[in-house]
Structures are given as structure tokens and as C-alpha cells.
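Can anyone check this?
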Amino acid sequence: MMKRILFAIAFGLAGLVGPALPREVYTFPAPNGESEVLTIEASADLSAMEPLIRDFQVLEPTVSVHFADSLTNDVFAAALRACRSGEVFADLMITSSVDHVAKLTNDGCAQRHESALTQQVPDWANWRNEAFGFTFEPAVIVFNRDLVPQENVPLTRNGLVELLRQQPDVYNGRVGTYDITQSGIGYLYAFFDAEQSSVFGRLLEGFGRADAVLASTTGAILDAIETGEVLIGYNLLGSYAYARLAAGAPIGIVLPHDYTIVLSRAVLIPPHAENRAAGERFLDYLLSERGQTVSARSAFFFRFDSPPPEGVLAADAAQGATFYRPIVLGPSLLVTLDQAKRRQFLDDWQDAVSPQ
């Protein structure tokens, strides 16, 4: 089987490989005394959501916010279970696994919301005014800037395949990606990659030969890249990587020049929300110019309508502009959750990545 680093031992973080991460709950008290409570269930790092929550409370100083963070698969399972049983789940759900959002929306587990702001969302990030994308999140290649020579930096998938083939003595055991059996977003990226790229099968085989490191979160792989234990990470969330770069981590970020997958982290209002009104106001805040500005400055760093932030290696005009391929929020995502197709895809993935 493919190599797995036990991040729980290496970094003191329990459950990053194997058992699911615990659900972490955080409370943001109302600055001016509580008049109502907004409850958010999410799969999103607190460090990314906190600036948005606190700025929302500047506008809504009497709203306390309860924010819970879990793995994507766990949030989806809890939301679906609550919907089917008619139980209260949250006022808002936020996740990067948009295939899960498609399933919930298709099953009647999201409430419709329309406003002037929802009408401004790109068509590929708005499904039936029930689920909305509010971020622009590219899947990126990340490398240790101090340990990977410039000539070795892979700018395309084929470049990464060739690097792993030509320099096994350097990169064996030191390339990382998602464990798609543990991560919903990892599975989605891999599934979409397989549809988009003729090189993807070769890349998986390369991961197998290179005894690649698997983890269930972008953060775990980034930790390993920062320490040099892993040199290159593939298909990682660009927003989380850029946060490390902006904080001074010795990493570089590539928007793959052949094409860059983009998803929009999604938000929906569950059917049995206790405080739907507050959920709608926070949703509109996320879509507003103010919310998007805070997001680009302090949370997720990329925007729908702006070039990538400084320091990210995107294709320049001489190479041809980076080709974004957005994952459309809609019914086409339901195929990724078909159990027979999922099992076959996981079996094929595991066969491909097994060491040759």
C-alpha cells in the first residue's frame, strides 16, 4: 500500500490519518450583548473563517456565533442524517465538498434564498438559489521553496510525472496528496482530474512508484512540506497554502499551467434552521463586496474577479493564460456520489497508487 505518515505522531495532531478528526466547536460572543445566536456547521479552518465571522459581528454586534469545524465527510453525514430525521442541524452549513452540497440540495436539504447578492453569483456557483459558492479556490501544487530547485518545480501535471520518474532518489517518499478514502474534497479533486486529464492515470502510477504520502487534510500535507519531510504536494487547497506563504512559510505555490481546477466553497441553509434570518444575513455578507474583500485579504485570498495574489506561479501571457476549469455546482456532481461508481473509482485509485 502507499506510504502513510502518521501525522498524529509526527505533529501531535490526533487522527489526521485513520480515525476522523474530532468536531471542534468555537464560540464568538456578541460584542454588544447577545440578542440572537447564529450556528454554523462547517468543514473550514477556523483561521480562515474567523476574520469573516468577526467582521460580520461588526455589522451585527448583538449576534453570537457558534462555529463547528469537522471533516467534510462528517459534516455531510450529520447534515443528511438531520435532514432525513427532521432534526435541527444548523443555521448555515459551509463545506468545500460541493458534491456533498449537490446531494443535500437534490434531496431537499437546503432552503431557497434569493437576494440582490445571490443574483451576482456566477452561474457555475449557484444551484437553484439553494446552494451558493462564495470563494474561488484553485487546486494547486505546493513545494518547499528552500529544498526544491527552481528547475525542478513542476508547472504542469506532466512535469510532475516526469520529475518523479527521473529523480526517484530525491522524491520517493517525499511527495504528498490527499487520501481520497478519508477526504471528501480529495475525492472530488481526483474524480474531476480523472475526467479532465489524460495524464492523471500516469500521475497516480507515479505516486505509487514514489511511495507517496497521504493525508486527509491540506493542513497536514502543508505541515510536512514546511518541515521538509515532504517536498511537493499535489491538488491542495490554494487558499490554505497561500495563508502559509503569507505567514512566511518557505513554500511556493503553482497554479498548474495545463489547467487549474477551481471550486467554490459552498454555503446553504439547512431545512430546519432555528435562526434562518441570521443565516440569510451571514450568507449575504459572504457574497457582499465587503465580505469578498475581507475574504481576499484575510481568509481565502483568491477572488472570482481578480488575478491570483502576488507570489503564486501562474502562467504568464507568453505561456498562455492559466486555464481555469471550475467545478460546476449542480446535478452533474451527483455522479461522484453514486456508490457503485465510487467503489470502482476508489478501487482503481488504490490499484494505481500501490507501489510498483
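Reply from J.R.: I decoded it. Confidence is low (pLDDT under 50) at residues 1-20, 317-321.
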